[in-house]
Design goal:
With about 350 residues, the protein is mainly beta. It is built from 1 helix and 32 strands. It has one domain: Methylamine Dehydrogenase, Chain H, CATH 2.130.10.10.
């Protein structure tokens, strides 16, 4: 399968792509390393472009606004026109942004070069109009923030580690996890939130899930059936809903990962692999870990997917979008071509035998 040829849409941000998001209408919003923020419609037409203060690291969206963390700032952009409505400088780098209970929640962190560590972090709450409702400072960096609709969780680094529930007034309820290692990743699965740790452990707020192998977990993808795809420094592991290993593949240089739509009936996971200054996309079947297809491109910085589309952004500024019906049709066409070739080969062999 030629993944480049099967691409439904290809666009250029003209700077390295740093963040991608599909909204509920299949519109695609992309952020760049130098502050470019662009929105394309579900049909592939550019709707607007905006210029933000710095690198876009995280995007969240409502009907009226697009919110982005950009360098030191949290920025609100009009969802229809792309006009910047307001922006606030946080203390340190603005990291992640989510929407929780109609409030904009963002995290920030301050890194001290002399101490080679994060010395202060904060969680901030704003409303649509840009009014700050509260800010909560903590010594630990929130490496992951998870909105489960009912609760808002943060996974913490040193020194306290563990996790915390963020209440509506900004107060924190600290949770002790069954691991003494910093939280580095997390997901809201069908069986509740799951945290990944720097030593490879997987935990839930009430129980351990799986002991680690000493390698830091960089990403966790969950399925509706409760299965998990767990990525660490050298492996991608599929766990079933009972947390039993179904398959393991060796991967070096993982730079991005996301769940994808089903391909030929099997759920897929899309992996970005760094290959020197370039990148390789591996599309993997979640059924058995087999590679469905591969594509070479620039270094892959981000991948995002929903029920029927997957988007990839690379260091060259290229954005690739695949659509489920088109990609599955191409797979079917390729299978037919291979089948036709096999039949023709058999006919040629039969003709040769008849001439003897």
């Amino acid at each position: 399968m030629n993944m480049d040829g099967a691409c439904w849409m290809r666009r250029s941000l003209e700077e390295p792509v740093s963040a991608l998001l599909f909204d509920s209408y299949n519109n695609l919003i992309a952020g760049g390393w130098n502050g470019c923020l662009t929105k394309w419609s579900a049909d592939g037409d550019e709707i607007w472009g905006a210029r933000l203060p710095d690198r876009v690291s995280s995007i969240a969206v409502t009907e009226k606004y697009v919110f982005a963390t950009s360098g030191l700032h949290l920025v609100a952009v009009d969802n229809e026109t792309g006009s910047v409505i307001w922006q606030h400088a946080l203390e340190g780098s603005a990291d992640q942004v989510v929407i929780h209970n109609e409030r904009i929640i963002t995290t920030s962190s301050v890194y001290d070069i002399e101490h080679n560590d994060f010395i202060d972090s904060a969680i901030w709450c704003y409303d649509d109009a840009g009014k700050k409702h509260w800010e909560t400072h903590l010594d630990e960096r929130p490496w992951v923030i998870l909105d489960t609709k009912d609760k808002l969780f943060v996974g913490l680094g040193r020194p306290k580690m563990g996790a915390a529930v963020v209440n509506d007034d900004g107060s924190l309820e600290y949770l002790t996890l069954e691991s003494d290692s910093p939280v580095t990743a997390g997901t809201d699965s069908s069986s509740g939130v799951v945290f990944g740790h720097s030593n490879g452990d997987l935990t839930k707020p009430s129980e351990p899930v799986r002991s680690g192998n000493g390698q830091s977990i960089s990403a966790i993808c969950s399925s509706k059936e409760g299965a998990l795809v767990v990525c660490d420094e050298s492996q991608v592991t599929k766990l079933n809903s009972s947390n039993q290993i179904e398959w393991v593949i060796d991967v070096i240089g993982l730079s991005a990962v996301a769940n994808g739509f089903p391909i030929e009936g099997n759920q897929s996971v899309w992996l970005g692999i760094q290959d020197g200054i370039n990148g390789i996309l591996h599309v993997i079947s979640q059924a058995d870990g087999a590679i469905i297809s591969t594509m070479h491109c620039g270094k892959i910085n981000c991948i995002t997917g929903n029920a029927n589309r997957v988007a990839l952004g690379d260091e060259k500024g290229d954005i690739f979008v695949w659509e489920d019906a088109m990609l599955n049709r191409r797979f079917g066409d390729d299978a037919n071509v291979e089948d036709d070739g096999h039949r023709q080969s058999m006919r040629d062999k039969l003709k040769a035998l008849r001439k003897r």
